[in-house]
Amino acid sequence: MATEKVRGKHPVEDLLYDRLVDAIIDKHLRPGQHLNEVKLAERFDVPRSRVRRVLERLRDEDVVVFELNRGAFVSRPTTKEAHNVFETRRHLEDLVVRLACERATPEDIALLRENLRDEREAFAAMRSDVNRVAANFHFAIARISGNGVLEKMVAQLIRRCVLVQSVYEKKSGILCLSEEHGSLIDCIEKNDPEGAAHLMAHHFDHIISSLDLTEARRAEIDSFEFI
């Protein structure tokens, strides 16, 4: 990430939080990577105390861990944590997509299709933000559900799923699920909750099949230092 000063009308801690979350979703920050408070404070021109509060917020979401006398690191999920995260997200998004079918407006459908076009372009060009654009599809469905609690929970689980994928994804490249996203939009537009839930379950089966959820795979991941 290039040196920048975080400014604007929003609280600086929220902006720094968003920068770090985006970097994790885009996989610029990897599991095990050191988050140096001093360097982050200098890079974003903020007091170190603000950086610490942001890192503690991410710790509370199980995205960052603190190690005694070493500092903060991007979390490296265990295989058990990985299974638990995907199991929880799978059941949660079953409910979310059913609610989205009931509550989606024509404007919501248009936004989903716009997101899908952006996603396809991102994959075709292999843009650096391709993972974030794909995640935005699920964020959008959560917003359409009209349930703020579910939306927040889905957002947190997506971040943890990204960490799981960073550690355990097989060496076959980035998984493109644009066609499945398109089929989900069709079900939401038709108000077909059963069809949408079935497709969402298949969607997660596809994601999980792209992972090597073994301790051997976890052991292959090196630790990084944030510089």
Give the arrangement of secondary structure elements.
Elements: H1 12-25, E1 34-35, H2 37-44, H3 48-60, E2 64-67, E3 71-74, H4 79-103, H5 106-125, H6 130-144, H7 148-168, H8 178-189, H9 193-209, H10 215-220
Antiparallel strand pairs: 1-3, 2-3
Characterize the structure shown.
- The structure is a single chain.
- With 227 residues, this protein is mostly helical.
- The chain folds into two domains: 12-76, Arc Repressor Mutant, subunit A (Orthogonal Bundle); 79-215, GntR ligand-binding domain-like (Four Helix Bundle (Hemerythrin (Met), subunit A)), CATH 1.20.120.530.
- It is built from ten helices and three strands, in the order αβααββααααααα.
- The chain has helices at 12-25, 37-44, 48-60, 79-103, 106-125, 130-144, 148-168, 178-189, 193-209, 215-220; strands at residues 34-35, 64-67, 71-74.
- A three-stranded antiparallel sheet has the order 1-3-2.
- A hairpin with a 3-residue loop joins β2 and β3.
- α1 (12-25) packs across α3 (48-60), α4 (79-103) packs antiparallel against α7 and α6 (130-144) packs antiparallel against α7 (148-168).
- The chain is globular and about 55 Å long.
- The protein starts with 11 loop residues before the first helix and ends in a 7-residue tail after the last helix.
